[in-house]
Please model this.
Amino acid sequence: MKTRIITAIVALIIFIPFVVIGGVPFELISILLASIAVYEILVMTKQSLFSVNGIVTMLLTWLVVVPENYLTWLDKIGLSVIELIFIGIAILLSYTVFFKKQVSF
Model:
């Protein structure tokens, strides 16, 4: 329990300035933390970051976390963020159906 409290205090000391500063530094630290979280989940489930599941999951995470003002290029190709998220989910679901012996949780 002591270790968790010390870790929480250190994390607060590191991350509170980013919250106070806001803007691009906060956006970058948010993207970094989300990417680390996805990586940790992949490690816990013994999947590679460079597998189909890992790549699609990381891309979906970035679509959710990255602010929309950085995703204006999607309008040029005629897609919205939610459409790409649905496409990514469909890819993940179909991958688990077609390669069920390779995918395990």
Observations:
- The radius of gyration is 17 Å.
- The mean pLDDT is 87.
